[in-house]
Design goal:
The protein has 440 residues and is an alpha/beta fold. Helix content is 50%, strand content 13%. It is built from 19 helices and twelve strands. The longest helix has 28 residues. It is elongated, with a radius of gyration of 28 Å. The termini are far apart.
Length: 440
């Protein structure tokens, strides 16, 4: 089973946003190859729910973050090699029979474009294979278990007699004669084609991991420490949103004794940003990538659902409130199957009247609190619901983001504090903006 996440959650957290400044994928998409970009997207589309797999990927990226190697391949090599390998039509296969005077003449006057493209692809592949061997040999002496496991499938291929034959000599000279080109073409495109593609896949994964390590080093991200689901751990220090240049950080710890976070605070106090930051950290941790925090320890989860920017569904005649109810129903159905989830609701039941919102918030939050294996973060403006819940449930932690008044102007600290807010500054902000004066 894979980690459960849906389009709404990906959109809420800005995972694949078109705006690179707020796109988590865009932050990490610094790869050098098209193959690397494809694998990076696959990783982001399919987060992991297996502790061993997360540790292996996280450990490899952490190793590269510590050693800080450069990607030892030229982008131009991949353009030529990928184009060459994409055509396996046997009619383009180089053969010994092409070592005729006519073929030599065409090659000499540079009219045989197809032949030159094949030769360029072969030379580029030789360069890639040699650079891969040198990199693996250099990194293998560092004593990283994750790298040794990663590279275990590389060296048997490179040490085979077929591939050893291309490890020395000038590639230009090796392909100067048509007979040499024909032998290498037979090796790369036909007899060992699957092995060649396997080696390229290793290179693309190196591209992803080295690039992720560079991003983490530049931005101060850290590797999350993963534990089995049974340990029910979620501890993050120095949590921040990855797209903010000068963010305020927060610490958060959640377990079975306080698996529900009831979050209050004024508009603009930072509730949505905090919840997005938390969701992004959970997502990246399950991808096995560095997280925007100073440290993180977490138990692997079954999945992540968020409801932060829920749109109306006008095409289906849904009001905002009904869209909220449909979303809540989907989450509830998932919780019947997978009890070890992370669920985030921003401004639960904002689409209905205050009385119904109060009753529904209390009832739903109380029901969530009974599922102690899962983590819930619920924000609301209805602070009376929090006061009621404090008497009903012992495993709800009440946090708020305060507003400090400086005269008639509010200042937001963006720092979590224990308790339920008493801030009610909506009318003050309206007055400060002079709206009533404009209307009058």
């Amino acid at each position: 089973m894979s980690f459960i996440i849906d389009k709404q959650t990906l959109n809420d957290l800005g995972i694949f946003s078109r705006n690179k400044e707020v796109s988590v994928f865009g932050i990490y998409n610094t790869v050098h190859t098209r193959g690397g970009a494809r694998i990076l997207e696959e990783m982001f589309t399919n987060p992991l729910d297996d502790v061993a797999k997360i540790r292996k990927r996280s450990g490899l990226i952490g190793f590269f973050q510590k050693e800080n190697p450069d990607f030892p391949f030229r982008a131009s090599w991949f353009d030529a090699a990928e184009f060459y390998l994409s055509d396996r039509d046997t009619r383009t296969r180089i053969s010994e029979e092409q070592n005729l005077l006519y073929q030599k003449f065409r090659h000499f006057i540079k009219t045989d474009t197809e032949y030159r493209q094949i030769r360029s692809g072969i030379i580029s592949l030789i360069c890639i294979i040699r650079a891969l061997r040198d990199f693996v040999e250099a990194m293998s002496g560092k004593g990283c278990r994750e790298f040794m496991e990663f590279s275990a499938g590389i060296m048997p291929v490179l040490d085979s007699p077929d591939f050893k034959s291309v490890m020395s000599g000038d590639p230009e000279i090796m392909t100067a004669e048509t007979s040499g080109t024909a032998a290498l073409d037979s090796l790369f495109r036909y007899s060992r084609y699957e092995d060649v593609n396997r080696l390229l896949d290793y290179v693309y994964r190196l591209d992803v991991c080295i690039s992720a390590a560079k991003v983490a080093g530049e931005r101060g991200f850290t590797q999350a420490e993963v534990f089995p689901a049974t340990e029910n751990i979620m501890e993050i220090e120095g949590l921040r949103h990855p797209a903010l240049a000068d963010p305020v950080t927060n610490d958060i710890a959640i377990d079975g004794k306080n698996n529900v976070i009831f979050l209050t605070g004024a508009n603009m106090a930072g509730k949505s940003t905090f919840m997005k930051s938390f969701g992004i950290a959970v997502f990246l941790a399950h991808v096995g990538f560095p997280v925007p925090a100073s440290s993180m320890r977490f138990s692997v989860r079954d999945g992540l659902y968020t409801t932060i920017n829920l749109p109306d569904n006008l095409n289906r005649g849904y009001s905002h409130f009904y869209a909220e109810v449909k979303r809540l129903k989907k989450v509830a159905q998932s919780l019947c199957t997978w009890r070890n989830m992370v669920v985030i609701f921003d401004e639960l039941f904002r689409g209905t009247n205050v009385k119904d919102a109060y009753d529904a918030t209390v009832a739903v939050t109380q029901a969530f609190a009974e599922i102690t294996e899962s983590i819930f973060i619920i924000s609301t403006h209805i602070i009376e619901a929090g006061e009621t819940l404090s008497h009903l449930c012992g495993n709800i932690r009440f946090l708020y983001l305060p507003t400090v008044m400086e005269g008639e102007r509010p200042r937001y600290t963006y720092r979590l504090e224990e308790g339920i807010t008493e801030d009610r500054h909506g009318m003050l902000i309206i007055r400060n903006e002079g709206i009533l004066g404009i209307l009058n």
